[in-house]
Amino acid sequence: MTKETHIEESLLTKLKDLKYIYRADIRDRFSLEQNFREKFEALNRVRLSNSEFARLRDEIITQDVFAASKTLRGKNYFQREDGTPLHYTLVNIKDWCKNDYEVISQLRINTENSNHRYDVIILINGLPIVQIELKGISISPRQAMQQIVDYKNDAGNGYTNSLMCFMQMFIVSNQSNTYYFANNRNQHFQFNADEQFLPVYQLADESNKKITNLALFADKFLSKCTLGEMISKYMVLVESEQKLLIMRPYQIYAVKAIVDCINQNRGNGYIWHTTGSGKTLTSFKASTLLKENPEIDKCLFVVDRKDLDRQTREEFNKFQEGSVEENTNTESLVRRLLSSDYSDKVIVTTIQKLGLALDDTKNYKERLKHLSDSRMAIIFDECHRSQFGENHKAIKEFFPKAQLFGFTGTPIFPDNSNYTIREGEEATYKTTESIFEKELHAYTITHAIEDKNVLRFHIDYYKGQGEINPKPGEAISQQAVVDAILEKHDSATNHRKFNAVFATASINNAIEYYRLFKLAQQKKSEADGDYVPLNIACVFSPPAQLMAKEGEQKNAEDIKQLQEDLQQEKFDNQSNPEEKKKALIEIIEDYNKQFGTNHNINEFDAYYQNVQARIKDQKWANKELPHKKKIDITIVVDMLLTGFDSKFLNTLYVDKNLKYHGLIQAFSRTNRVLNDTKPYGNILDFRSQQEQVNQAIALFSGEKSEDKAIKIWMVDPAPVVIEEYKKAVEALGVFMEENNLVNDPSEVYNLRGDTAKITFVKNFKEVQRLKTQLDQYTDLDETQKEVIETILPVDRLQSFRSSYLETAKQFKAIQDKEGNNAPEDIQQLDFEFVLFASAVIDYDYIMNLVADNLQMKPSKQKMSKDEIICLLSATANLMEEQEDLADYINSLDWNKGQDVDKLRAGYQKFKDEKNDKILTNIAIIHGLQTANLKAFVANIMSRKIFDGEKLTDLLEPLELNWKERSVKEQALMTDLIPLLKKQAQGQEISGLTAYE
After folding, report:
1. What is the model's pLDDT at position 831?
2. Which residues contact 399 (CB under 8 A, 6 or more apart)?
3. Looking at CB atoms within 10 Å, which of 255, 262, 523, 686 has the fewest?
């Protein structure tokens, strides 16, 4: 008995204990469909004829898992043979516990293309809803998911042409490690070039202790009612993206805590969920569940800034189209509060608008008077910012029966409160707890870091060049700060793959810094013709009172509302407003010149939104969006330091005093998870605020030990990582010696057997991971840089990277070709090619490098032909192009100059000719007309769709019988597929998988 079989039998026993009915008789498509028919007829109290059932089955089976998921949860219509309508559901959607829960094993979906067998499947009312894949070996979650992805992409797998289209969730386990994730359409269910993949979850209890053992997981997650609740309540169908999401365990516990609190009418409460943990999804789900509660008259979701209002509304509407409408003004809010329409039961608004609606001096309050008796649920987003003023008091007084719930990533404790309540002689601090009564659930940044939902931090406390160190909180010279940022930015941002925000202490400082950067970069450009300037933007709110005076009333009101949460900017704008306005006009004019936009100060919000969008545009490769269209550094005062999210923002420069929640909020802009090229959030602090950082960690970590918290939050200091790097390189050397080889990159090709090559792949991947981490440390001194270079000189590192990529490509080809039939150790390899992708060495870089080096006499050449080809082979982002580019570079006359445009045109011609030769050769081998084959390929590439009928037309002149044609089709496609994939450059060609 293999271990995998043993795990399967144990799981089936466990599911039987959980009262699932084991159906040993369901092993194929026919028995699966017959069982579903019985369940369907019983649920809907109907008897269908054979032809009716066949038609119903064909109507509900779809290639689109999102459409199937909606059908599963909805009320549907079917017309019977006699013309009468049948309104049906596939499951009992009112009470999912009352459905039939069955389990089957080793189901085969046999088609002419596939003979897959599935380990364990859970059926709800006869529909396959959860697939459990079991492994007898150690697996990584990324690789486990990749195997399911490959399964789904295999032709004839059943997910698109049978009842398997209703699959909602996958579970992968090797008994000790268990992961789960949602099914999705292919565009949301595959790895992309940056290896960003769908969330893979582990179950945890309320205190975030992991539950990974399969038996314990089954007890907690797979009991019938829990699973039914998970599918019906805690999976979210994101309409705008046509995507399925499963809520994380901590999100579910938070929602349940709020719903229970309301059902039991137990007062108020707050949820402490760290920044970056998906609070919008949690609050959305809480709101929608409350919408269904007849005891609740209205559910208000309250945010505290105009831009957050829009952002939150868009997020809510993303989850469910039209679920919330815009409250453009207070009158609109009042109308929706008075409305009895079900669609107006959930309202998103700002606390400022709600405050105006309840203001004694306005006429709204009288109109709303009869609502004061209503039972309200009011959920406050980021309640650390907004619930400490008069607005909150007014809300509580006006809606005495309301239950208030706050979400915060950084609660206000006595230590970090700036607000006091005075009762007689005694004064106490106003805290999140004093306002919201009790903590309902906590998921701190410490939990999130441990779960890899957010990144750790690397903090460089800048000391300057001199002997005298600045005192904590003391500003150093602005010129020194500018020089340091210009020197360190490329390292901090992985050669501008990411971007940065620069937090300054005041509007005047922001203006001064903006001008200093402008001057410094002009000088650098004059001194060095090759210097590529950083694109620097600056954003701060204009003086509202000046705008109002000049007749820009709407703009002034917008800015005023924005400044409610921008205390420093509001204060700064009180003095010399004309100067600040003039400076901002100058900054916006520069921005328009740089980016070809047309913004002005009288529509400030549009400018602010464009800056935010452009920071997020960093996600596009330079090939798709040139670097000159992106922002490298955004200088701010208060803006963007809370609530703004971008995975491609990895660095925060700080020249302002921060503490407690303000510090954590600002730092948390940098720590969104992307992939292994972003190992941590980078902070470069110019105010020596180590004590403030330690205080903030102690307060918000949720840990009793400050030392333990610091170890979790912070990456290891450079000396520790350098030592790890040294050990990893030494281990690589020992491995080479154990294989009787010299420790040299060229010797990798002499490794014998897959086991040795697999060990090399694993060893060198660790070397590269540590090097990627060190490359982004901004606090390395010259001695440390020399040590890193000595451990593995850059040219040897580059050559090892080439050897790694060559070896990894061979194994990847075996994985792609053989799938689950590949040897287990090859199946489990996770190459993490993204670690070997260069933000610098892209197509443009190589072309410019060749242009720079052509026509130079050998004695003056910067780089030889072979050196450029070696550089090209050491980066993963040019893997598809590497062979063609190398051949092209080799074909060039190195003594004949060409500019970049000529080189590009020459390369395109070279590729076209090469492809023509390959196609001509394939046409000759298969007895086809070359022109016809070229037209066939051109049609596929123009549409990115493979059409089987066009293949039949192509082969028609050969006059083959069906059996001969089938063999010829497969042989032809085996030769064509590598060429088609190469030309597609990573883009999917629909329908091609049938021949792979």
Report:
1. 78
2. 371, 372, 374, 376, 378
3. 523
- What gap in Å lies between CA 860 and CA 462, rounded to an integer? 40
Beta bridge partners of 118: 107
Backbone angles phi, psi at 102, to 5 degrees: -130, 160
Q: Taking the CA of residue 505 as centre, how many other CA atoms within 13 Å lie in the half-sphere pointing to its CB?
A: 14
Q: Are 102 and 21 in contact (CB under 8 A)?
A: yes
What is the pTM for the complete model shown?
0.82
The contacts of residue 818 (CB under 8 Å, 6+ apart) are none
Q: Is 613 helix (H, G, I), strand (E, B) or coil?
A: helix
Residue 874: CA atoms inside 13 Å, Cβ hemisphere, count?
A: 21
Structure tokens at 644: 């703004």
pLDDT attached to residue 851: 81
At residue 450, what are phi and psi to the nearest 5 degrees? -60, -35
Query: Tens digit of pLDDT for each residue in 585-626?
Result: 999 999 999 999 999 998 898 999 999 999 999 988 887 888
Residues 6+ apart with CB under 8 A from 436: 268, 269, 270, 383, 387, 404, 405, 406
182 three-class SS: strand
pLDDT of 420 > 70? The answer is no
CB 601 within 8 A of CB 581: yes
Cβ proximity of 28 and 108 under 8 Å: yes
Between CA 732 and CA 746 the distance in angstroms is 14
With both helix axes pointing from N to C terminus, report the angle between 478-492 and 507-527 in degrees, rounded to the nearest 10: 70
Q: For 404, what's the count of Cα atoms within 13 Å in the CB-facing half-sphere?
A: 23
Which amino acid is it at 88?
Y
Paired sense of beta strands 681-685 and 649-655, if any:
parallel
Q: 465: exposed, middle or buried (C-beta count within 10 Å: 0-12, 13-18, 19+)?
A: exposed
CA angle 760, 764, 765 (to 5 degrees): 115
Helix, strand or coil for residue 870? helix
Report residue 496 as tokens: 């501008």
865-873 helix and 843-853 helix, angle to the nearest 10 degrees: 170
Look up tokens 């996600």; give the residue: 619
Output 714-720 pairs: Cβ under 8 A, ≥24 positions apart.
Answer: 714/456, 714/457, 714/458, 714/459, 715/456, 715/457, 715/458, 715/679, 715/680, 715/773, 718/774, 718/777, 718/779, 718/780, 718/784, 719/784
- The amino acid occupying position 428 is T
Q: Is the distance from CB of 432 to CB of 691 less than 8 angstroms? A: no
As a dihedral over the C-alpha atoms of residue 136, residue 138, residue 141, residue 143, rounded to 10 degrees, the angle is -80
